[in-house]
């Protein structure tokens, strides 16, 4: 990790023994071990919080067609029905029309976040999956939340 050899480690331990003395050296070792353990735990918790909030490791949900249940099995509980967004929301400019170059906000279908045009995450959304918005309030009305990276806001 630090690329310290055996001789360097012995030299560091001898200097620490001379500076702190034989009585305090075990205490310092335990305190350093606790501090490293707490730092590792805090950094792991921070990383997992970021991944959870931004859904970094989760692929976009794919709409799967339900398979028919076999006749011999017990009837399964019905799956929750999610209505697809109407075409007027997905592409308010009509079939085959592109969004005007001035559309400042967009989101991905099935996602919860919307982004400003300048956001790096917005560029990763494939064109057929984009939902366009003229104002932040439009996106929020349709249930989208602001991207924590670009934090889109209405211009003053």
Instruction: Label the structural class.
Output: alpha+beta
Please give the count of helices.
3
Radius of gyration: 27 Å
Biggest sheet architecture: 4 strands, mixed
Task: Estimate nothing, just give the exact number of structural domains.
Answer: 2
Describe the model.
Strands 3-1-2-4 form a four-stranded mixed beta sheet. It folds into two domains: 1-57; 87-146, no CATH class. It has helices spanning 6-54, 87-90, 136-141; strands spanning 105-108, 113-116, 130-133, 145-146. With 156 residues, the chain is an alpha+beta fold. It is elongated and about 75 Å long.
For the structure shown, list the relevant keywords.
3 helices, 2 domains, 156 residues, four-stranded mixed sheet, 38% helix, elongated, 9% strand, alpha+beta
């Amino acid at each position: 990790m630090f690329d310290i050899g055996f001789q360097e480690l012995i030299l560091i331990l001898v200097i620490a023994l001379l500076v702190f003395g034989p009585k305090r050296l075990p205490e310092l070792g335990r305190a350093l071990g606790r501090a490293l353990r707490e730092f590792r735990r805090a950094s792991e918790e921070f990383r997992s919080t970021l991944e959870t909030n931004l859904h970094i490791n989760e692929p976009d949900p794919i709409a799967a067609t339900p398979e028919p249940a076999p006749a011999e099995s017990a009837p399964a509980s019905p799956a929750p029905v999610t209505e697809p967004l109407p075409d007027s929301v997905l592409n308010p400019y009509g079939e085959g029309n592109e969004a005007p170059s001035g559309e400042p906000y967009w989101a991905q279908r099935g996602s919860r976040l919307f982004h400003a045009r300048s956001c790096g995450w917005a560029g990763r959304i494939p064109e057929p999956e984009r939902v366009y918005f003229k104002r932040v309030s439009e996106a929020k009305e349709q249930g989208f939340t602001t991207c924590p990276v670009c934090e889109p806001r209405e211009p003053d």
